[in-house]
Design goal:
5-stranded mixed beta sheet; alpha+beta
Length: 409
Amino acid sequence: MKHTFESLYRCVPTNSFSRNDLQEEPSEISNIHYGDIHTAYNSKFRFSSERVPFVINDKLDKLRNYTRVKKGDLIFADASEDVDDIGKMIEVVELGNAQLVSGLHTIHATPKKANSMASGFSADLFKTTKVRQQIIKESQGAKILGLSAKRLAKTSLIIPGYKEQQKIAAFLSAIDDKIAQIQKKKGLLEGYKKGCMQKLFSQEIRFSDDKGDAFPNWEVKKLKNLTSVITKGTTPTSVGYNFTDKGVNFIKAESLDSTYKIIEDKIAYISLECHESLKRSQIFEGDLLFSIAGTLGRSAIAKKQYLPANINQAISVIRLKDITTAEYINHFLNSFLIRKKIKQILSVGAQPNLSLDQVGDFKIQYPCLDEQRKIADFLTAIDEKIALVSEELEKAKAFKKGLLQQMFV
C-alpha cells in the first residue's frame, strides 16, 4: 500500500548540542550526533552494540522537555557534504533501558501508530533506490546539502502488510548477518597481518634460510640510497591540458587503497600528448607509488596492466635500483615504523603532506635479498587471503544492494 512519510511518522524537536557538549563518561542521557550516523552506526541501531556519547552533566536540565527516542523510531542525518549520505538514517531496533535523545542536524521521527512497522524493515526501506532518489531530490544546498522534516514528509513509501514486512526484514537481516560474518573474518585477517608485520619488522621473529641457518644481520638504509629516482607528478591543467574520457591512466592519491592496490574506477585519464609532455612523472613497471598528500602513506607497485600511466602531485614515484626488492619495500612502507615516522613529521609541520626529501630520508630495515623474499612472500600470501575475503564481502554487499534496487518498484 502507498503512503507518505508524514502519514506514518511524526517528527519531534531535536537538540543542537555540539561535540563539546558530549562525553564518553556515562551520564543520565545519551545523544545521537549526526556525524555518527554518517560514519559509525549500523542502520539497524542496537544501543548495546554502539558507542553512543553521553550528554555532559551541565546540559542535562536542558533536555527535560525533549522527546526520548524509543524502539522503532527513525533518526535521519539532515546535513551532508556528500549527496550519497544526505538523509542517511538509523532505525532503533534495540534500546534496553537507555535514555536517548536525537541531537544536532538530525530529524527524529516516531511512528504515529504503535506496531505498524516490523522491526528492521524501515532500515532497509530507506536504502531502496526509489526512496533514496526522492530524498536526494528533496535535499537543498550547494556545498552542504540539507534535508528538512517538511521535505522528508513528502516521501512516498510503498508499505506491505505487517507479516510481509516481517518476512522481508528477516530475509534481509540474514544477509546482514552474513555480511557481518565476512567483515569479522576480514578484520581478523587484517589484525593477524598487522601483528605479523610488527613482529617481523621489529625482528622479534626472523626467518631462517633453506638449510635452517640464520640469515645475516639486517642493515638500515635510507630509501634514497636504494633508489635511482624519487619524484612526483603534476596536475595536467597546470600545464595546459585537460582530463579526457579515455586514454593514458592518470593515478591520483585517491586511486590507491589501503591494501596496496590501485582502484581502477578511481583512475582518471589524460591524452597521449599530455603524457609525453609529463616525462618526469611517467610510470614504469616495478615503480612504487606512495601518497604524499591527502591520505598519506598509501602505496602500490606499478604493474604492467596499468601502463602507460602518469601521476599527480599527491603521489611520489619511487624507482628502485633493484626491482627485485619492490615487494619487500612496498610492505615496509606500510609498516608501523613508517606510520610512526609520518606522525613525527606531521607533528612539527603545518601542512598534512610529505616532501620528496622526507620520503627519501625514510630509514628502511634492510635484510638480505633471500630474507626479503621470504618476508614479502609471507605477507603477500596473507594479502591474497584478505583479497579473497574482500571479494566475497563485496559480492554479498552487491547482492543486497541489487535486492534493494528492486524492492517496491
